[in-house]
Request: fold
Amino acid sequence: MRRRFAPIAALATALCAIPVALAGSGADPGVSSTTILIGGTSPLTGPAASYATVARGAQAYFDFINAKGGAAKRKIEYRVVDDAYNPAQTVQAVRRLVEQDNVFAVFNTLGTEANLAIRDYLNQVKVPQLFVASGATTWGRDAAKYPWTIGFQPSYAAEGLVYGQYIAKTQKKAKVGVLFQNDDYGKDLLASLKSGLSRSGSKVVAAEPYQVTSPDVGSQIGKLKASGANVLAIFATPTFAIQAYVFANRLGWRPLIINNAVSATSNTMTLASEGGKNKSIEGTISTTPLKDPLNPRWKKDPGMKQYRAILAKYAKGANPNDANHLYGMAVAYETVGLLKGLGANPTRAGLMARARSIASAKNPFLLPGVSVKTGKGDNFPLQQGQLQRWMKGRWVPFGGLWTSKRN
Amino acid sequence: MTARTTRIIGFVAFAAFVAFVAVLPSFIGDFKAREYSYVGIYLIALLGLNILTGYTGQISLGHGAFMAIGGYTTAILMAGNEQFGGPISGGMKDVWTLPIAGLVAGLVGLAFGIPALRLSGLYLALATFAIAVAMPSTAKRFEEFTGGGSGIQLFGTPELTGSISNVEIFGLSFSPNDWMYYLAWSIALVAFAVAWLILRGRTGRAFRAVRDSEIAAVSSGVSLARYKTLAFAISAAYAGVAGGLFVIASAFINPDAFPVALSIYLLVGIVVGGLGGLSGLVFGAIFIAFLPLWAQGQDLGSLLPDRIIAETQKPGGPAMVYGIVLILLMFAIPNGVGGLFRRIGQLISSRRYSRAK
Reply:
């Protein structure tokens, strides 16, 4: 009996010893003399699995940095756990990362609901919730209440406003129909679109929600067409955005289409074009802070050359035209910058302090002129973007960079 | 083996299992206790589903929805829904919401059981599937009641026992993770005993009669209406308690926490555990709780060859591994773990008899 328990007891002792071993040098959990462990969830399966490439891009960039010697003399280990876009699973996975794997920070976790589900927990246990992959306004707006949480991408509120102002400026008495995901993300975009339209002759005539779990958005598109709208705003994730184009085309409906940034990667647009047969995508308006992998303008750009090289080497088989990889690299680039500045004994509090005072103007994956910055009273890292129009198989930028002034 | 020795073996095995459950947290890490609490939670749901599907022969593809009903009952009683403009002020301690969660889900199950009387086989499966599909949308529609897509946050609320500080009870101190483990498993073990008591007597025989042949059951005086709705109600009540515990463990609820996939996983769980048996369901619950992790190359999955682990890290990878494991398992043990147990039992007893000759 005693002999039987011996290996279990040894294992239990070993498990207890791990946190002690990690604590070592006076640095926080997740930091050893050779590595920094960060972790996050990403949908690798389920309705939003197309976003899995964000984590893959970030992973490839960390591998690239590690091959060059890492950040602050340590290799960055990035552990990604699948949550199937289900917030209950996000909670389990994140507690596992924090309590069992002892990550230094939770990084790049994807989805508005997923991040809402873990925010109170992470702020209580004081683990950074770094660069949330969601544009909900709350990440920046409620920084005082949740000091351990910080977003990254331009807020949906800023994005929606830009579309509203664009329509107000260029269209006379437009009737806007909106397809939106029935959660904070979709509602943030819808509300700010409306405020961008205010005091113009244009207005939202119909807004149709869909559920993440629903099979398609055919009936919503049918209703929006029936409403007499001549502008269609798609505030939907890639799968549903593609469906929206397909159904609009089948119904012979050719409104001016606005497509939100999260579904506007060239890759998604190419899929929506159904091999060039679907003409409804021509003239679509969207916005992005990223360089477009399909745009020949960036063919010789050093940042984009690096992007393709890293992807080819560290994410074999990944499609470089999927700009979600690029987003992942952009956010990983900023993270490496933060970690480098933490010195010999990185602490979680030190990481957050630096995340609240970023001044990074040269992210090679973002458009020239787009800077990542935070500071006193400014908790939104990215607040700029470029309007662009889809023409003949690629995005063509127009107008200058916009900068959100709301925050 | 006589019926009596079988029963004695059963009691001894159950007592040994209770003892095992009681001491397990001392041998696994603190965090693992939290993960194993989910096994207990899924076990409760599987016990309920097996009463309905395994014993009474009524297929339900909608048990995730009954879990959601229990989960929302618990969350709303704890946090209230006044902050969304709803009528309930909340403030109830988490543990006390569980009987109500069971009751509410049980009543909904009963209400659903009545129209379901007219359906059988595949049609019933489809009707129950419809509840599972409709549930997330319904919860989002009644936003002032459920908090909509943003859900209800319970972490750190006074109603939640042990958010991050230790729990003192009966003079003992439990870490939050151990507390969750013991809470889930004490309820799961009671639920197990209750299910056994229900199934061993007259009611259980009636359930099995309905399953094996409805015509034969009616001609022996078993009321189909009564036993089918009863099975639905009991089964849904189990799912409701499991849903309530699930929400306490996650400290968060929103409609996407109970996707259609959950209902399907539960059905997979009873098939893996063995239809029409109780003890195998523990393995079904382990399967539901841990296979998604193993399929990502974590824990047991880290024993897989590196090439396969590399595949699991790619988009869609875990789902593929999950599917392959499920297919292999069904080839190896088509009657589930429970069926395997029974087969081993038969082998032992037949050897014994042949030796006696």
Notes: The mean pLDDT of chain A is 88. The two ends of chain A are 66 Å apart (CA to CA).
